[in-house]
Amino acid sequence: MAHTSANHGHDAHDHGHHDQESMKTFGFWLFLITDVILFGTLFATYIVLRGNTNAGPTPEELFQMPGIIAETFILLTSSFTSGLAVLAMHRGNKQQLLGWLAVTALLGAAFITLEVMEFVHMVNEGATITTSAFLSAFYTLVGTHGLHVSLGLVWMIGLMLQLRKRGITPVTKRKVENLSLYWHFLDVVWIFVLTVVYLMGVM
């Protein structure tokens, strides 16, 4: 009888833990929805203001497409490697999971480095955030995406340390899945940035 009640208590604990993880995942989805609204607003603002160059530099004069294509390739590859990390996790392979997360983090860092170099080049050309409404909208939109990638990197490094210490548990599993979802989301946002800001800018 005591054995049955112990089992029952253990099942209840597991069920409660599972419910807690589900709630946290639901909370994360809500966060992503607010992010969609944020980026939607920034895109709408950019589209309205992109013609207001205030006699300053235009997108055609500023955007260096080879660098942008490199950034896109790097970010798309990092999305693929984050998917491989999730597959390794489902196979229970901690080393491969950590390896693919490390590759994803390096690619993310390379993306941010290129973006910072692009911003520095533009500022040196006299195209600062205060030069025109177009540039204010540009730096806000692209910079917000870059900030999200940077936060994702900090999260990824913290999660790698946690995985190294605790291994693959229901908690770390949820965190890896949420992180991968977040990373894919940033990839989709970047495709919109590439199309709306860069490609439409130089065309």
From TrEMBL:
GO molecular function: cytochrome bo3 ubiquinol oxidase activity; cytochrome-c oxidase activity
Keyword Transmembrane helix carried by entry: yes
Family designation: Belongs to the cytochrome c oxidase subunit 3 family.
GO-annotated biological processes: aerobic electron transport chain
Top-level taxon: Bacteria
Name of the molecule in the record: Cytochrome bo(3) ubiquinol oxidase subunit 3
Annotated SUPFAM superfamilies: Cytochrome c oxidase subunit III-like (SSF81452)
Ranges of residues in domain Heme-copper oxidase subunit III family profile: 26-202
Assembly behavior: Heterooctamer of two A chains, two B chains, two C chains and two D chains.
Compartment annotation: Cell membrane
Pfam families membership: COX3 (PF00510)
Transmembrane segments: 26-48, 68-90, 97-117, 137-161, 181-201
Biological function: Cytochrome bo(3) ubiquinol terminal oxidase is the component of the aerobic respiratory chain of E.coli that predominates when cells are grown at high aeration. Has proton pump activity across the membrane in addition to electron transfer, pumping 2 protons/electron.
Keyword Oxidoreductase in record: yes
Organism, as annotated: Paenibacillus tianmuensis
Membrane topology: Multi-pass membrane protein
InterPro entries: Cyt_c/ubiquinol_Oxase_su3, Cyt_c_oxidase-like_su3, Cyt_c_oxidase_su3-like_sf, Cyt_c_oxidase_su3_a-hlx, Cyt_c_ubiqinol_oxidase_su3, Ubiquinol_oxase_su3_dom
Keywords annotated in UniProt: Cell membrane, Electron transport, Membrane, Oxidoreductase, Transmembrane, Transmembrane helix, Transport
GO CC annotation, single: plasma membrane
